[in-house]
Design a protein that fits this description.
The chain has helices at 4-18, 39-46, 139-147, 153-158, 168-178, 191-210, and strands at residues 23-28, 53-57, 60-64, 69-73, 78-81, 93-99, 104-109, 115-119, 130-131, 163-164, 251-255, 258-262. By secondary structure, the chain is of the alpha+beta class. The radius of gyration is 20 Å and the shape is elongated.
Length: 277
């Protein structure tokens, strides 16, 4: 599933190529991906308007088209591509955008788990926690969030109600970078471990953005090319391979129905005495 780095990459590329252009024509195919509006209404609401702003909150991308706000959640296999010829599944293109300079943009979703909404005012996301790239993602706020729950730390990282944007790939990578076992209860982390984890969240997420996201299944950039970050992963999908730090084997377990990868030598489950928060 595209996570924060992939959605941010797509948002940046669309912003660079399509911002301040007028949408001359839009073709929409009926699909269950449209959530609060019918496809024909979506088409009529956007056609002729200028794409003025593009923003992102967690895994949601928001366009501002004058006083209309389409919102996209890419689900598991939703992608935007600039050229139709780059699509491996053109029969699954649900939206075709034609802008005033004859530039094109297509939205495709093979598995149809993406979600598209339309709002008449700037959308709010009360169900989401702190976006980990925003200024309010501070060490102090992070400490407070972890101190509220005894859920395993991997599940806390992936809970969009707590932290917005982190999915399974990056939760695995963040915990390895911080040397923290994925099954550790959040409340059991020491002050030093929380600080290390906080820095790892920022490091892993921003590095993935710099690398244009991780391509494992459907994800592609707007240019129709894969991201590069899969070439830098340390543990995800590497069960049985040697750990890059200690040489031991990366292990795989199932945690909360999700595949979880870690090195038991580098990511000990031992709980140390916690210092006061």
């Amino acid at each position: 599933m595209p996570e924060l780095p992939e959605v941010e990459t797509v948002a940046r590329q669309i912003r660079k190529q399509y911002l301040n252009k007028r949408l001359l024509k839009i073709e929409v195919q009926p699909s269950i991906i449209f959530q609060n509006i019918q496809p024909d209404q979506f088409k009529r609401s956007l056609q002729g308007k200028i794409l003025e702003e593009i923003s992102r909150t967690g895994k949601f991308m928001i366009w501002k088209m004058e006083e209309t706000y389409p919102v996209f959640h890419l689900g598991m296999s939703g992608i935007f591509i600039r050229e139709k010829s780059r699509s491996l599944y053109p029969q699954h293109i649900h939206i075709s955008f034609l802008f005033e300079d004859d530039s094109t943009l297509y939205f495709q979703d093979v598995r149809k788990f993406s979600k598209i909404y339309l709002h008449n005012s700037p959308p709010e996301f009360p169900q989401l926690g702190i976006d980990v790239t925003r200024e309010n993602f501070t060490l102090n706020n992070f400490k407070k969030l972890l101190n509220l729950t005894n859920v395993t730390i991997k599940n806390v990282l992936m809970d969009q109600r707590v932290l917005a944007g982190i999915g399974n790939i990056y939760a695995n990578e963040i915990l390895f970078d911080a040397r923290i076992h994925p099954k550790r209860p959040a409340r059991s982390l020491s002050t030093a471990e929380i600080r290390r984890l906080y820095e790892s969240v920022k490091k892993i997420i921003h590095s993935a953005i710099d690398n244009f996201g991780t391509s494992y299944t459907a994800y592609m950039t707007v240019e129709g090319t894969p991201g590069d970050n899969q070439n830098f992963l340390q543990v995800y999908q590497k069960d049985g391979e040697p750990c890059s730090l200690c040489g031991g084997k990366i292990e795989k377990i199932i945690l909360n129905s999700r595949s979880t990868f870690f090195c038991k030598k580098c990511q000990t489950h031992k709980v140390k005495n916690r210092r006061s928060m």
